[in-house]
Prior knowledge:
- This protein is an alpha+beta fold.
- The protein is built from seven helices and seven strands.
- The strands form two sheets. A four-stranded antiparallel beta sheet has the order 1-2-3-4, with no helix packed on it. Strands 5-6-7 form a three-stranded antiparallel beta sheet, with no helix packed on it.
- The longest helix is centred in the middle third of the chain and has 20 residues.
- The chain starts with 14 loop residues before the first helix and ends with a strand.
Amino acid sequence: xxxxxxxxxxxxxxxxLHISISQYLAIRPRDIISVLKTCRTLYDVYSQKAIWDTxxxxxxxxxALFEPSYPLQxxxxxxxxxxxxxxxxxxRRLRAGSPFVDAxxxxxxxxxxxxxxxGGGGGKARVYFAPGGRYLFEQSHGAISLWDLGFPVALRxxxxxxxxSECKFxxxxxxxxxxxxxxxxxxxxxxxxxxxxxxxxxWVVTTPSPxxxxxxxxxKYSI
Length: 223
């Protein structure tokens, strides 16, 4: 009779099973961090890109974030980790009452007068951030514009790019609406993400005209 005893260990599981386990841990991404800190073997396994790609996708589902905000295929493991941990760290700072802006960071626009002086004009503006913080809808001067604000500075891997304070916004699309003045109906808009988080639908609606008619337009954006 053999004296050898077969032992089962989590260290001997194939990577596919670790990815399955990470799907449960990803509800709280810091639990994955706790696992990879236990030993070198688990550090190597839970530092793989597939693990953190899965984790970020689950966080997007959990918090209803717009997944296309993150270029998953081109992101590094470190970027995926920061993105997956970001919402929980944000909530932790909120609960702790910690400041979100360093003392040496200057706001680009601080007052309405400052905004007008920089070319903002006198027209009213409304904005909507798609959850994820990258895509912004802006209603201003008779148009609704969709802006790509770019990859968040905190997730950039290039230190030179991260240190740059220059904001680079890209206009994705502009939907012209009726001019906002006293004689025409005021335009309202709403943005509704799809259930799978892959696209956004923009609804543009006017308030009733004197004849009681509404004008409604819908635009679908797959980014």
